């Protein structure tokens, strides 16, 4: 390179740091288990973003060592594991950080109050229904806003509704 731009040494550092960071992160994720990066709540999303940021900093900054990046990866994954353990052992705490799923459509009818509260448009629900290959809203038993923000579509004429036991349903709770 001439005059301006990164030196060969800087480029080699970036390449080596990228390869090492990649393998270190893969090893740590495998060590922490399959759910280490599951986006099942806000914490999983935050950890995923933070891991990406830590990895980018470790790769692009000559001032951050692989050991420092590895420590950051480990701390973030340990926090994720800690919250997963808390959720498993103390389910009541889960509600504080991870709201229960809620119905936004039941028996083919939109639940406007829930959709407004969660800022979900009818088009979003219709798109979720279409993605399941269903062409009539009336054929849908329920659409559930899951804790992770996704929409689940349930279609069954002969459903016992057992999949809805943990779903907040104002109709069911008022009976």
From TrEMBL:
Keywords: Cell membrane, Membrane, Transmembrane, Transmembrane helix. InterPro entries: DUF421, UPF0702_alpha/beta_dom_sf. It is found in: Cell membrane. Residues 89-159 form the YetF C-terminal domain. The chain crosses the membrane at residues 12-33, 40-60, 66-87. One of its GO terms (cellular component) is plasma membrane. This is YetF C-terminal domain-containing protein.
């Amino acid at each position: 390179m001439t005059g301006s731009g990164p030196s060969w040494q800087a480029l080699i550092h970036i390449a080596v740091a990228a390869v090492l960071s990649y393998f270190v992160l893969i090893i740590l994720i495998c060590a922490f288990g399959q759910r280490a990066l599951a986006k099942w709540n806000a914490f999983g999303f935050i950890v995923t973003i933070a891991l990406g940021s830590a990895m980018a900093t470790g790769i692009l900054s000559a001032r951050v060592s692989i050991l420092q990046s590895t420590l950051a990866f480990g701390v973030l994954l340990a926090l994720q594991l800690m919250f997963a353990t808390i959720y498993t052992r103390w389910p009541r705490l889960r509600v504080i950080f991870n709201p229960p799923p809620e119905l936004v459509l039941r028996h083919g009818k939109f639940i406007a109050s829930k959709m407004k509260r969660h800022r979900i448009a009818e088009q979003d629900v219709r798109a979720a229904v279409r993605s399941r290959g269903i062409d009539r809203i009336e054929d849908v038993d329920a659409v559930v806003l899951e804790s992770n923000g996704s929409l689940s579509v349930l279609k069954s004429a002969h459903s016992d509704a057992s999949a809805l036991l943990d779903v907040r349903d104002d109709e069911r709770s008022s009976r």
